[in-house]
Amino acid sequence: MILKIEDVSCGYGLDPPIVSQISMTIRSGEIWCVLGPNGVGKTTLFKSVLGFLKLKSGRITIDGQDIRSWTQKKKAQVIGYVPQAQNNPFPFSVKDVVLMGRTSYLSELGSPGKKDVEIAERNIHMLGIGQLENKKYTELSGGERQMVLIARALTQEPDILIMDEPTSNLDFGNQVKVLKYISDLSRRGLAILMTSHFPDHAFLCSSKVALFRQHQFVIGEADNIVTEANLKQAYGVNVQIVSGTSEQGKEIKSCVPLLDD
Ligand SMILES: Nc1ncnc2c1ncn2[C@@H]1O[C@H](COP(=O)(O)OP(=O)(O)OP(=O)(O)O)[C@@H](O)[C@H]1O
């Protein structure tokens, strides 16, 4: 599976584009981490890929097919989306929210069958949120909601997973767990496109990176893009990239912010 974002410009209404002429090719098994300061257009790009926003120019294809011609149902069977944790006004149970991931597989008046329930429960348990299954979504903490939304997207059994800040609201342990799931999912063949406010996440997932700077972006392997100079340009702060070797002999890298000028 190849998702191609070709020369895409996107934004809102008649206003000038927020993101201009971006091109990315995302293949099965790859993790792409989109980095950049607040308000630079990361979510806008994702909304455009998902078809929530009309492109101003360019095109988006999956295996050569322009996805503008796809129905929402077909798109939902191929692309799973984890939005930033939301408030849901309806007090659905966690199990029901996760089961909603099966909607695109049901007929118009159909209800989920045994297989749908099994898939939902498998994901609930894989993400370690079994104890929340019968709780109301509206009564969960922000981090718990985030885990439920990830389980719902996995229940779509997509080929591509688009995740908008999947680790926001999560405690340190759950952040690491989610990054590990993301790496596992990519090894199972999913293509993953995610945003993060932590450049370290790109190192941890050995990912490809699109780093947005105001009206510009740089794209490539994490090692080449997550550099002190690029981070300074994007975020206006000084950082030092430090590297070492883990106990298992793996090279590890991290961005350390420098608080002095
Ligand atoms: N519905 C909208 N109509 C008009 N402008 C919008 C709309 N939604 C967002 N914007 C503007 O688009 C720009 C990019 O917003 P976007 O949410 O894509 O940024 P982001 O990089 O995802 O930010 P963050 O890291 O803070 O989540 C911002 O200037 C924002 O004000």
TrEMBL record:
Q: Which residues form a coiled coil?
A: none
Xref: CDD domains: ABC_Iron-Siderophores_B12_Hemin
Task: List the molecular function annotations (GO) for this entry.
Answer: ATP binding
What PROSITE patterns has UniProt attached to this entry? ABC_TRANSPORTER_1, ABC_TRANSPORTER_2
Protein biosynthesis keyword on record: no
Every copy of the ABC transporter domain together lies at 3-239
> Which keywords does UniProt give here?
ATP-binding, Nucleotide-binding, Transport
Q: In which domain of life is the source organism classified?
A: Bacteria
InterPro entries listed in its UniProt record: AAA+_ATPase, ABC_transporter-like_ATP-bd, ABC_transporter-like_CS, Metal_Ion_Import_ABC, P-loop_NTPase
What SMART domains is this protein classified in?
AAA
Entry protein name: ABC transporter ATP-binding protein
